[in-house]
Design goal:
Helices cover 17% and strands 47% of the residues. It is of the alpha+beta class. The strands form two sheets. Strands 4, 5, 6, 7, 8, 9 and 10 form a seven-stranded mixed beta sheet that branches. It has a three-stranded antiparallel beta sheet with strand order 1-2-3, with no helix packed on it. A hairpin with a 5-residue loop joins strand 2 and strand 3. The chain is elongated.
Length: 178
């Protein structure tokens, strides 16, 4: 087990913080570790039908481009994952799910962050409101699973939560070239 000696530097924002710590390693040597304290998040694979899902297109600053991914967002303080995913689905797509199911919870960046993402599937969608969260979302797209497999093969889908969720549900994998 590693033990923190001291924090060398920190960066704090309204939604996460980063610290650079000096640590005592299990072999007795000293080292440095970066830790990102990040709120939990929730994501959803919203099924329009058994063969189609809703996806959102949005600009991702760190990548410098738009991505196509499943709806997701950070949990607000005190919010439960299922509440968050229902809120995010409405905010980002204008749809609500009559039924949601937890698929899995995972740590996307286990080497340096404490973030957990709760991944859900959603069914029995119905329009809840018009309009998009235009601060984040460029468009909402209905994508067939067949087209999605093709997009993945061509490297057009890069988002980890989207790829993991679809793989876990068995919606992609066979025939996808690696």
């Amino acid at each position: 087990m590693e033990k923190k000696i001291r924090t060398v530097a920190t960066l704090s924002t309204h939604s996460f913080s980063v610290s650079l710590d000096e640590v005592l390693l299990k072999n007795g040597m000293e080292g440095k570790r970066i830790k990102v304290d990040h709120p939990e998040a929730a994501a959803i694979i919203p099924f329009v039908s058994k063969d189609e899902i809703l996806m959102v297109r949005q600009f991702r600053y760190a990548l410098g481009k738009e991505t196509l991914e499943i709806p997701a967002g950070k949990l607000d303080p005190g919010e439960k994952p299922d509440e968050c995913v229902r809120r995010e689905l409405i905010e980002e797509t204008g749809y609500e799910a009559g039924h949601i199911r937890l698929i899995l919870t995972y740590a996307p960046a286990i080497g340096y962050a404490n973030e957990l993402i709760h991944l859900f599937s959603g069914h029995h969608l119905r329009r809840a409101r018009e309009g998009l969260d235009d601060r984040e979302i460029s468009s909402v797209e209905t994508v067939s699973l067949r087209r999605l497999r093709d997009m993945i093969e061509k490297g057009l889908i890069e988002d980890g939560k989207t790829l993991l969720g679809l793989s876990f549900l068995g919606l992609i994998g066979e025939g996808v070239k690696t």
